[in-house]
# Entry
Amino acid sequence: MTMALAVLAVVAVLLLLRVPQWLLLVLLLLSVTLAGASLYLGGLDRAIGPLIAYGLALGLLVPAGVVAYRNSRVAPARRHRANPPIGAKRRRTLTKGGEPVVLPGGSDLLAIPGYEILEKIGSGGMASVFKAKRVQDAQMVALKVPMEQYVADAKFIRRFHREAEVAQRLDHVNIVRTFEHGSLGPQHYMAMEYVHGRSLEGYVEGGDLSIELSVAVMQRVAIALQHIHAAGIIHRDIKPANIMILEGGVTTSADGTQVLRDEAVKLMDFGIAGGKVLSRLTMTGARVGTPVYMSPEQARGLKIDHRSDIYSLGLVFYEMLTGQTAFKGGYEAIVHQQIFQTPPPPRQLNLRVPKSLDSLVMRMIAKDPDDRPALADVAEALSGIDLSEGHADDLGDRIVLTVNSRQGVVRVLDLEGNLHVSLGDLGVGEPAFSTAPVAVAASPDGHLYMASFEYRVGQERHHMIAKRSPEGHVVATFGGYGMQPGELLYPAALAVARDGSVYVLDSETHTITRFDPDGGVLGRFGGRGHGQGSFNDPRQLLVGPEGHVFVLDYGNRQVQRLTADGAYETRWAFRLGGDRPGMRLLDGFTVGRDGALYVSDATSGKIRCVTPAGKLGTTYVFEKLQGEASDQLLDMGVDSSGVLYVARRGGHLIRKYAPSGALLDTVETYAPVVHMLVDVREV
# Structure
């Protein structure tokens, strides 16, 4: 008994000293020999004590790395290595040339049996991804491991494994395969297909996406996402970084077109961490990634479904087509934009985007989930997109805008508000604009005249009126700075008659100068006064279908009509009524092709139509919107069908009214309006 206790004590000491395992095996054999000798010499009664001591020593000698239990989902144990005990953590190292190499990022990671971890290749908001080699067949895989702060979240871990089990059943050429998942003590992992290629994020940042390639990639992603939704999974994290394109998956044809292999697109990271976890804007005090691709309902913390993925996919497509995200700014700013603001359509930023594709993207990112198309409709639409749509086709009636924006300063829209032509950005040299034109007018032959106030010291002859071709090229310039005939101080408005004559209103001198189509001076009239051919703060100018000149005489609260040579004919004004003396304030007007006059009565918030016979016609109610300025002019125009278009300068909306006076629609301009013109084309 004494000898057995001595052996037990020796074994305990040796274990504490971490002696080599071969010495422990020798002691193990010695212990078994002594136990047998005690039993043989003393019998069972006398040997019971030593046998118990020898048994305890035998238990201590069992190698310290043996794990008694392993989850059934874990891959087979790696041979020829000792595993750490459950709960133990140690720095995972590799060897290179005999020297230990710490994993990139200094990650503390439990050894995962069956895999040789090679390097860390990514890290998201809730998990890290490691490149590893599967020991049994040397296949490269990607191991996704939840970050330490989420391991204690039982709901998160249950969802991690539950959705991984569903993902294992997915079998689609455009979805990254999930091989297995498991846990080893507190360590959880998922083994997935390793994709060698380039993320869509890299393509966008490198400017390597043509519209044709963007459509092809998005079509494959839409089909893959449709397959995922059919399995009951919501991706919840659609973004360019989660869309991979295999190495060599994109080739260039002889005509320079980018060609995509169908199997080259891989959608990954679906259903890993969603539900209420991703719906919260904060988690354990940390932000959950970027909200750039988050749906409005997700940003609000509401319950989400598959339509949230469609919204995120639309934002990814938006970025592919324009090279920039739809929303910009800090975290809170982007969340606010996601909920309350609509970005400018892709075609506003890239005129090469076909109109049908532009419309599809805007429907995908509709704020109301019910307004978004189904993925099947998206895939079908993408397969039928006509990438050869014309960019400057004959629109008939059109809207011409000058806007306060660095891109697309002058824009030509159809009557639904879709952009067809963008004539230049702010910049230096043609066709750029050094400053946004304050007014624009269209000639019968399609040329555009633009007035830009810009006086440069030392360049007194700088011209402020430019005549541009329908394509935006400068054809002629005139209207230098000064007081001499043909010179201007501040060109506030201009109009073009049917004979090509150009009228320019100078709000500083209160005069109107008439030019020929190329800038030759034909005459000058007006001046400061109280009416009947003179003006007090004139602001708007139009030429009617019969050649009459109409002027908004803002200071005198009237609209005057003059002959083509400036002779006074008549005026329109509205009395305040009742016992109040004076006239109502007028802040905008237009003339229809039938000669009807539309005048905005700012005092009552109504637009009144005056027929050519001088009688009051339809009244339009113009309600001021919250945040909309009331001290800015209204630009108005009437198309061939009698629809009235109204835009407040400095605002973002064009209101459309039926001939009956009912509000038909509002068109978003996505930039502050400087001037709006409805150009009615001759039939």
Observations:
- The first strand starts at residue 93 and ends at 96.
- The CA atoms of residues 293 and 408 lie 25 Å apart.
